[in-house]
Write a structure and sequence with these properties.
- This protein has 76 residues and is mostly helical.
- The protein has one domain.
- The protein has 5 helices and no strands.
- The two termini are 18 Å apart.
C-alpha cells in the first residue's frame, strides 16, 4: 500500500484510537512510512484548522476527492 492509500483510508477513520490501530497494521513497523503518513494527516488537520469555516470552501468535496486533487504534491 502506498503512503497516499494509507492516508486516504486513515482520513475516513474518525476515532483517534481506531486510526492509530489502523496505522499500526497498515505500516507494519515501517517507521519511515508511519512518519510520512502521520505528517500528511497533520497537514490535513492544520489546513482544516486554518480555515475559518472549512465547510464553506469544501462543500461537496470528499476526503478522497481532496486527496486526488493533491496527489501530485505527495509524489513530487
Amino acid at each position: 500500500m502506498s503512503p497516499l492509500d494509507i492516508h486516504d483510508a486513515a482520513l475516513a477513520i474518525e476515532s483517534a484510537d481506531a486510526r492509530r490501530r489502523y496505522l499500526d497494521e497498515a505500516c507494519r513497523g515501517d517507521e519511515t512510512l508511519r512518519r510520512r503518513v502521520e505528517a500528511m494527516l497533520c497537514i490535513d488537520a492544520d489546513a482544516a484548522a486554518a480555515l475559518p469555516d472549512p465547510g464553506r470552501f469544501l462543500r461537496g468535496w470528499t476526503a478522497k476527492k481532496l486527496s486526488a486533487t493533491f496527489r501530485a504534491r505527495w509524489h513530487a
